[in-house]
Amino acid sequence: MNDKHRVRVSKFISKHLRHAPAEIGLTLEPGGWVGVDTLLAAAGAHGFLISRAELEEVVAKCDKQRCAFDETGTRIRANQGHSVEVDLELDPAVPPELLYHGTALRTLPLILDGGLLKMARHHVHLSRDFETALKVGGRHGKPVVLSVAAGKMAGDGFTFFVSSNGVWLVDRVPPTYLSVIPTDSATT
User: Last residue of a domain, which of 52, 78, 104?
Assistant: First the structure.
């Protein structure tokens, strides 16, 4: 499969597992799961034919690991990033002392004033490393990376989760736990 087609399939899958399952007749099971055969049939019924092999390739080659199969390979879900109501059934986890969040420079004043908010998603997404956060921040303009005092937050009673692809999740991050990292001098 060429890169262009793989991206098209990835975007279609992400859209319907994260934001619009009902648009193609899917109902997410507990944990956000949907049967692979159900997904493939629904996609085909809506004019987007995907083979099982193509789906497996998209999941395996996605650098962000947005989706995952269950241990049986019969179900698939988006790892995080949902805007539809879903309980991913993740267990609380103890975060490292520092996590990172990448954003666009234009959003920095709002974030420093009100903190990181989940907005239309279920959680704020945090990265374990600076480089990932920088890449995420660069998707929407000049990137800025924020350091999140996750260890202190956990000690103060905030609950963290970690998805199967290593993205850390939390309901919100108040501004007192944030520090701006100069992108030209940061290291991990």
Answer: 78
